[in-house]
Amino acid sequence: MTRTSRPHIASRAAAYVYITLVLVAFTLPTLYAVLTSLQPASVSLNPVPQWIFTPTLDNFVSLFEDSSFLGPVLNSLQSSVGSAVLALVICAPAAYALSRAHVSSSGVLGMWLLAARALPAIGLAIPAYAIFTRIGLSDTIVALLLVYLPFNVALATIMLKVFIDGIPRELDEAAAIDGASPLRTMLRIVLPVARPGLASVTIMTFLFAWNNFLFPLVLTGSRSATIPLVLQKFLGSYTLQWNQVMAGVVLLSLPLIVLGAIFGKYMVGGLAAGSVK
């Protein structure tokens, strides 16, 4: 009994140690960002980390007073929500068709979607800048929505198709017997069952746009700048405002925490369902 239980205890202890190390590695940067966002400027600039200080919310207040942070927040919300909605509207019918229509070349289409997702972002950003400048879309939210589409639609279609593949086709056949059209079957039968997959796709596409730095850097200016683009302005050649940068990072993370708290179980369920099919 003792000989068989010792390896088991050792493996469990090793697993706990590994999990603890991973949690510490992921938590420390977040803890550092939160603490720095609450520090006065004189403390945050100290090269030696200061763990004892008087916390202040002045960094969050000055973000909106000195740097017009509200505009970039609204721009980030518009581009992120808009790209997630567009991706859902386009990818849901595409994923349903690839899953149910017995397309002989679905494998080729899947490869094309993966190729679009693997396209280097800078390879799209520079031609997009030239095109949008010529047609008058430079420095607009519409330009961001258009360049996000190839990446979001490819990922969303592949993820959602895998999830719809797991929904029994008997549901479609029963709806057809009752006289429902394919569009009605998709909207009333399949997509409600695919809620975890839709939640996963929504969060992934929202996060892609919300955290993106390269496309706003190339395609936007003062009118449509997003939060990640504004934060880098606090790190100049002669000024390092770490306290305000970290305050912005904390604000940037808040919607992600809210989405994770609300849709986290659907996202984990959707990703897990997709991974075993």
Helix-strand layout with pairing:
Blueprint: H1 2-37, H2 41-44, H3 58-66, H4 70-100, H5 106-118, H6 121-135, H7 141-165, H8 169-177, H9 182-193, H10 195-211, H11 214-219, H12 227-231, H13 242-275
Short description:
The protein is mostly helical and 277 residues long. It contains 13 helices and no strands.
Shape: globular
Succession of helices and strands: HHHHHHHHHHHHH
Biggest sheet layout: none
Span between termini: 39 Å
Mean pLDDT: 82
Helix/strand-derived class? mainly alpha
DSSP E strands, number = 0
Low-confidence segments: none
Radius of gyration: 23 Å
Tally of individual helices: 13
What is the quaternary state of this protein?
Answer: single chain
Strand content: under 5%
Summarize the amount of helix as a percent range: over 70%
Can you characterise this structure?
The protein has 13 helices and no strands. The chain has helices at 2-37, 41-44, 58-66, 70-100, 106-118, 121-135, 141-165, 169-177, 182-193, 195-211, 214-219, 227-231, 242-275. It is globular, with a radius of gyration of 23 Å.
